[in-house]
## 1
Amino acid sequence: MQQQESEETSLVYCESCKIFVNISNLLSHSCFNCTIINNDTNHEVVDKPQQHEEVETVEELLISLVQLRPALWDHLIALKNRSKNIKDDLWVEIFTAMGQIISLEEIKKKWRNLQRQIHKVLSVPPPSVNINPSSLYEGNAACVAIAEILNKLPQRNKAKLEIELLRLVYDTYDQYISDSGCSNC
């Protein structure tokens, strides 16, 4: 294990499981899980009690360290506060906080890959919801026509209109129930 200490955190990089461990939790780390002899009053051999610790991967640590430095990701900050020199200094801070285990270029590469993955996930539109007008709105020609129009719209507009359509259908149904005086409906 390689040790790294900084003013932010004291971390140790575990070579066997490839994660960073807080130095205060080092003995409870899963790689140190072993049998303790004569731990109880009966002098029996017992297993060390299992403790569930949150494991912070390199990516999670990188995200949390970058999140503390908005100049690296927030484009709403003034340019003078996120200049190249400032960003380079912040990347060096992250490099030292991660224990200088991974090279600075590798850290930046991991961050770019994480950003790409996030943007890829966020850019995928939600799955299309196609309404089958004939089965959903039997006997109501207006609803069938509206549903057919909805199926031709882009997904973002369709979701808003579906909500409005359902609200209109429910309001119309409630009005029908109150006007007809139907107590069983």
Note: The two ends are 71 Å apart (CA to CA).
## 2
Amino acid sequence: MMGNRERDAKVCKQLSFLGDELPVFLASWEGSAVIFLSIFMALFLPADVLSRGGPLSDFVGWMSGVFPLIEGYGRLSKYPEVTKAYFSIMLAVSPILIRHFVKERMQYMKGRIEMRKNNHSKFLRTGFLLNLFCIVVFYLWIFKNDGFYYSVMPVVDGRFSLAIYGLVYAGGAIWFLVSTPVSEVLIFLEGKPEIIRG
């Protein structure tokens, strides 16, 4: 019978990838570039950046017509023009994070082949529900979000909070979710469906 120490060690080993995620993300060129751009825009864009007109103002207007969350967060923010410009640019740029998230997700999935083989039906059910959940959350967040945020992550409270939490709301979290179904599609295209099916 497995003791508590052995059981804890097994659980820690299975979840060890979580502790490596942030350093790996920061070390990637995608993560570094997006984080630098995020902090730079949040802290240094002029408060009247859109009132000055020009291509950026036109771009933000177009993006706001596609993504209602831009106007939603701008309306709630203490710096509405900065926030709208920030969200517009980050929603256009942050999809490059999919490359990093998908690569890491595929490595994680390939490392769990044996576990999937031993729990075939469980992983099929879980995978289907997880993919469905990701699609629904993606749709609601991108196209139905009118400025939702957690009070513990007050993205609209000012420039500093936008620099810290902005990336989470402006694509970071949603592209992380999207990486799960994208990873499974790519694995099938590689001709290795056994990684998913078990």
Note: The chain has one domain: 21-197.
## 3
Amino acid sequence: MALKKNNLKKAFGKKADVNEDNLGPFNLLIEKKPFKNNAYKSAKKSKNLKQILAMERERQLALDIPTYENIECPPSVLPQRKYCDITGLDAKYTDPKTGLRYHNAEIYQFIRTLGVPNVQAYLSSRNAAVVLK
């Protein structure tokens, strides 16, 4: 079979295909999209009977029945977590002289260099400052 001349594709990049107006930046927001139907609206999702009955049961709950919105719990029996006043990491130690909590020996060396006003500022951040008169 011989190929016919009019069935052959044109060569890529012919000067007739290039338009000087299209050489600038290409903005996809302005360009019309042929695959998008602007008149399309998604179907309204209907609820089945099981969902409707569950919603009715939730509305009829008494106030004394615990739910995630009204649950109350007693105070925790675990000890309160202590955090380093300087770094915010877990505090394993407390300086007996200043009362500052610290994480490791490096931070303890830093605490030793602090003056009284700075120590009071760190203590006031956790409401443990001593008022000096």
Note: The two ends are 110 Å apart (CA to CA).
## 4
Amino acid sequence: MFRPKAFFSQLKQGNHFRLTILLQLIRWTAMCCVTMPHFYLKNPPSLFPVPFGIELQQYRFFEIFAYFPYGLFIIVVITNMTWLYVKKYTPQSISISKVWEVIAIAYFAPWLPTLVLDNFLLTYDLAIPFIIVPLHFAVVGIESALVAIGLQQVFNMPANKAWLIGLGGGFIFLALAGIVVR
């Protein structure tokens, strides 16, 4: 992923659908098994008020179990939105599984350091909105950029359209993650 253009050019050639499903399963399982329990135990301040009058600690407990299916849901929504727009802007036939491959890879690689960083910040009581929010915005920005590069390389999309779609996916991620993550 340090050479995204070359990487996505290779992705264009083969079928990596099963691998990308595995990568997303790893991502959301790790969140549920490592990061979310750590949030529950440390209970840092919440970025947004917890809905429905639930206590923050109880909400964090529910996040442990809800984050896996909700995370996959977010990636599926981004994939579908991307597919709908990509097929408008490219002359060739577009398979949704190839769009999934681009999205799944782009939203996996930049996340890896946050698994370590989030848990480091939680361990040392530094997981405060002032620190963690800019970090995650930066990661989503990188993920969006990788989507744009992937769309250009895999589907030969014009750069301006690919970047708009990549940013749109990033905004969807932030909006949907913001609904659940506190």
Note: Residues 4-180 form one domain.
